[in-house]
Design a protein that fits this description.
By secondary structure, the protein is an alpha+beta fold. It has 2 domains: 2-124 and 300-304, Rossmann fold; 125-295, Tumour Suppressor Smad4 (Sandwich). It has 9 helices and 17 strands. The strands form 3 sheets. Strands 6, 7, 8, 9, 10, 13, 14, 15 and 16 form a 9-stranded antiparallel β-sheet that branches. Strands 2-1-3-4-17-5 form a 6-stranded mixed β-sheet, with helices on both faces. Strand 1 (2-6), helix 1 and strand 2 (33-37) form a beta-alpha-beta unit. The longest helix has 19 residues, at 10-28. It is globular, with a radius of gyration of 19 Å. The two termini are 22 Å apart.
């Protein structure tokens, strides 16, 4: 049986419209399914937590954006018992971009129903103040997190979603936040080795795959199944440099810039000289000075095209 977790509000209500298109296909094909609709923030996590608490195998199909995926993976009790399907309906859809899943909802559904190919995917863990959050895309501190914080309350996001230009949301907000963000002193410790200090870190992010923020290719070599995290630190107090770098990031052409530092690790600890915005798969976490990113022991299986 397929259990659908549907965010009807994703991309300003497009999630509901897509479900109305897809449900008749399930009925026509005689598919055994049940549908759960999220009604408030973190509702998806609560739904999934209850469903997976029996430690039995489940196939969960997410209809939503990266934020909905984040809620789901934070509700799953047993990763090795869950098979995940995804129909992207969000603004950024970085997870589906990295997994090369179809943008067309019908095609995405058909791949899930055929279920021929499974790919193991790493799950990240972000720890802060004796709390933890799972992530499947990325977690970061500084400028990129400030952009995510702003996106949650942005009227620009609603407008661009209505115009079917949602992927430009993060570009527009990034340009806005560039004016107000400031660099910080950051100490980065990888795999319990010698700490490295950056005096003008603009942001630092641990990536489970290469994309973030609607197509920014921060860590071009990152793979979501290699049991490693890729970490990027942009170390400059020049906003002009950051502005020049942003277009290059879409093509992964920023990696040779002197202010860009990329590492591969299993664990990364970030410590800053002041509390800064933090995000987990684009979902805001209140201002922090110390976060740790690592990998969960178990992977989760994702239904893919090949």
């Amino acid at each position: 049986m397929y259990t659908f977790i549907i965010n009807p509000y994703s991309r300003s209500g497009r999630g509901q419209e897509i479900w109305i298109r897809l449900e008749p296909i399930l009925k026509t094909r005689g598919i055994d399914y049940e549908a759960h609709f999220t009604k408030y923030q973190k509702h998806a996590a609560a739904i999934v937590r209850e469903i997976t608490s029996d430690a039995q195998p489940h196939t969960l199909v997410i209809l939503g954006g990266d934020g909905t995926i984040n809620e789901v993976i934070n509700g799953i009790r047993h990763f090795d018992k869950v098979t995940l399907g995804y129909i992207p309906t969000g603004s950024s859809n970085d997870f589906s971009r990295a997994q090369r899943l179809p943008k067309d909802p019908v095609k995405a559904l058909n791949i899930i129903l055929d279920g021929k190919h499974l790919r193991p995917v790493d799950i990240g863990i972000m720890n802060y103040q004796q709390k933890k959050r799972n992530f499947i895309v990325s977690t970061g501190i500084g400028f990129d997190a400030a952009v995510c914080h702003q996106a949650v309350i942005s009227k620009m996001k609603v407008l661009l979603n209505h115009l079917k230009l949602g992927k430009l949301t993060y570009v527009g907000i990034a340009l806005n936040r560039l004016i107000f963000s400031k660099s910080c002193r950051l100490t980065l410790t990888l795999d319990d080795q010698t700490p490295v200090t950056f005096n003008d870190a603009f942001f630092a992010t641990a990536m489970n795959h290469c994309y973030e923020g609607g197509g920014f290719k921060f860590c071009p070599a990152a793979k979501p199944d290699d049991r490693y995290l890729d970490v990027i630190v942009v170390d400059t107090n020049s906003k002009l440099k950051v502005l020049v770098l942003l277009p290059a990031v879409f093509f992964g052409l920023h990696t040779k810039a002197r202010c860009v530092h990329i590492f591969t690790c299993r664990t990364a600890v970030f410590e800053t000289d002041r509390a800064l915005a933090v995000h987990c798969d684009g979902e805001p976490v209140f201002l922090q000075r110390h976060i740790k990113a690592s990998l969960a022991e178990k992977q989760i299986n994702l239904i893919t095209k090949h």
